[in-house]
Description:
Layout lengths: L2 E5 L5 H10 L3 E5 L3 H9 L3 E2 L3 H5 L4 E4 L4 H9 L4 H4 L5 E4 L5 H13 L3 E4 L2 E2 L1 H7 L2 E6 L2 H11 L3 E8 L3 H29 L4 H8 L7 H5 L22 H17 L5 H15 L11 H5 L3
Parallel strand pairs: 1-2, 1-4, 2-3, 4-5, 5-6, 8-9
Antiparallel strand pairs: 7-8
Helix pairs in contact: 1-2, 1-7, 4-6, 9-12, 12-13
Amino acid sequence: MATIGWIGLGNMxxxxxxxxxxxxxxxxxFDLSADAVAAAEAEGVTAVPGIADAVRGADVVFTMLPKxxxxxxxxxxxxxxxxxxxxxxxxxxxxxxxxxxxxxxxEAAADKGFRFVDAPVxxxxxxxxxxxxxxxxxxxxGAVKDATAFIEPMARNIIPTGGATTxxxxxxxxxxMLFINLASTAEGAVLADRLGLDKQVFWDIASVSxxxxxxxxxxxPVPGVIDTAASxxxxxxxxxxxxANKDIGLAIAAARSTDTPLEIGEHVQQLFQRLIDQGExxxxxxMIIKLVDGTL
Length: 296
């Protein structure tokens, strides 16, 4: 069994580390949130006071952080991962961040003699808890292969994507499609209701027809249809609107850098921004339905 350093014990990192502990690994975890640390400790993670303590002597270090700026600070700072880890330690960033930051981390790690992969995930909090995430791993082939062995307790699907930053590219494009699907699901659900369709009957039809999507099956924004939907719980967050806005913003930035028009994606981003402007950024992103039905 391995010694794993983990930085970032939030909604995703916490349950991911719990699955590593269940698999028999020793996990040393660090987070700035005392509540996140306490929750991870309850699942068997060994809490440590700083990055240096998490990475020292570890076989592999995982990071799960909100933004590219956070990832750069954690890896590149004077008291960061590259300053304290041994070069034999494999580095795995599972954050969802911008392509430029991912490229900077790859370059800085290589310059210091580290193996580094970008390995963002799909599947949300429920997938993190169940150990059924999809990992998209970009980097040198040998490092990707080695990372796979550590990732297995957390994943249902582990997919090598190619060279450096391609994991992030895959995640950005996937989430773009997810949020467009979510918006279309909200519009279809509201229209079906106003045309007199029973909500369960319509979902039963759409889920086995061409309107099907992961968003429809997992995040359906009408309460009383899907158990996993935040709509059943006053849109308490499973994936916040702020994070959704951040992720679709990454896709828009990448599109602009490649001269790719994203007219639909830009419209969905504007809907998320409207929710944030109305003070609902901390609510689940499926609350987008309230902009369709006119209740917000």
